[in-house]
Design brief:
single chain; mainly alpha; 19 helices
Length: 396
């Protein structure tokens, strides 16, 4: 589940209960599907300037997350300890080395091999406990509607807005993936299909008692790093997660991976997301208008996210802080869309000759032609405005 969902889900769950949370999730998923169906009507709101700004913010907002991973996971007893950083840095060094100096399968699987080595290094530090795997069952089927579903208007409206904001984040994630792996922006068909697919899967999750799915920015960094975009690879990864959902022992084994290992394996690719946002921004030139939209949007997004409680003061509705005060992506995206819509477009300059003395060169050639000079005599025509005929050869 995306971190963008978490604060809103916590607020709705505490106020209305888990059953209302599942009902609001079901409504929000339907809103996401409708948004995907009509994406062609609103795609003008997401030009490269807006998507590039959102992608840049996604990358920057992930930096604290990966540092928390490397430090051992916020709230854990050993958070920030030496052992966590040793494991994290060794994992990072392996991934970095294989990515930049490896070849073939070793290079493409750098993150996987780094995680394997990181887990082995973490064992002497007592970070891996296999006892939970032994206690887990071998097979378990999901149940339809394991919890009752209730609908409250306030909860449904809150999550509907959150789902739209997550869709904006998904547009940025997909654009970053295609730009980094295929050096192009996502097509309308690709974006619309992805938006509808995310809403449909989240809808299924709600009736199974689960949380919504989303495209993690971490995955974008991995895709951009190895440039593997074959759909069968993603299908294989999906099969692993499906098997983990049906086989508790496998899911427990996956959760055994220490957080410092995850942080060390992914920190090297998070910066790529930010750089892809910059690539999209500079594609059409950093004009004063583009700089204004980008700078102001990022300032609002990161500023609000970094100042805890900035939208939770007196007379401030609780839903404002829930939707806009918990993630830098949402306020940044809203501000970028608004500014890009209201600021007048900059006039395009006429095509001019930027070569030194370009206009004089043109005039000199015109005078030579008027004087009936040959090609060999063009160089003899003076560039200071003297009579062209005097420079022309005699044709007696």
């Amino acid at each position: 589940m995306s971190f963008a969902f978490l604060p809103a889900f916590q607020a709705v769950g505490i106020e209305f209960g888990f059953s209302s949370l599942l009902g609001a999730e079901l409504v929000g998923s339907a809103v996401a599907i409708v948004f995907g169906m009509f994406y062609s009507k609103v795609k003008f709101l997401f030009p490269p300037l807006v998507t590039g700004t959102v992608i840049f913010t996604i990358g920057v907002s992930l930096y604290p997350t990966v540092i928390r991973y490397m430090a051992g996971g916020e709230g854990t007893p050993g958070f920030g300890g030496v052992a966590n950083w040793i494991v994290g840095l060794i994992t990072f060094a392996v991934v970095f080395g294989l990515t930049n100096f490896g070849r073939g399968t070793v290079k493409l699987g750098a993150i996987f091999f780094g995680i394997v080595i990181g887990v082995l290094v973490s064992i002497p530090f007592g970070m891996v406990d296999p006892s939970d795997v032994a206690q887990a069952g071998w097979f378990s089927l999901p149940r339809l509607f394991p919890f009752p579903i209730e609908f409250y208007i306030a909860a449904c409206l809150t999550l509907a807005v959150v789902y739209i904001m997550v869709n904006v984040q998904l547009i940025g994630d997909l654009s970053a993936s295609t730009m980094g792996s295929m050096n192009r922006m996502s097509t309308e068909h690709e974006l619309g299909g992805a938006l509808k697919a995310q809403g449909f899967v989240s809808m299924i999750s709600s009736v199974l008692g689960g949380m919504p799915t989303s495209a993690f920015g971490q995955n974008v960094g991995i895709i951009v790093s190895n440039r593997v975009i074959n759909r069968w690879v993603f299908a294989g990864a999906a099969f692993v997660f499906l098997a983990a959902g049906l086989v508790p022992k496998l899911s427990t084994a996956l959760t055994m991976i220490p957080q410092p290992v995850i942080g060390g394996a992914t920190i090297s690719v998070f910066g790529t997301i930010t750089l892809n946002g910059i690539r999209i921004l500079v594609k059409d030139g950093l004009t004063p208008r583009a700089c204004t939209v980008f700078g102001v949007s990022v300032a609002f997004g990161l500023g609000i996210a970094q100042v805890s409680g900035s939208l939770a003061g007196p007379c401030m509705p609780g839903w404002v802080a829930t939707i806009f005060g918990t993630s830098a992506i949402t306020p940044c995206a809203i501000m970028a869309i608004v500014l890009n819509s209201i600021l007048p477009p900059e006039p395009r300059p006429d095509v001019i000759d930027l070569r030194p003395d370009g206009r004089k060169e043109t005039e000199r050639l015109e005078k030579a032609i008027a004087a009936d000079a040959t090609v060999d005599d063009v160089a003899k025509v003076p560039a200071n405005g003297a009579s062209s005929k005097a420079a022309a050869p005699s044709r007696a």
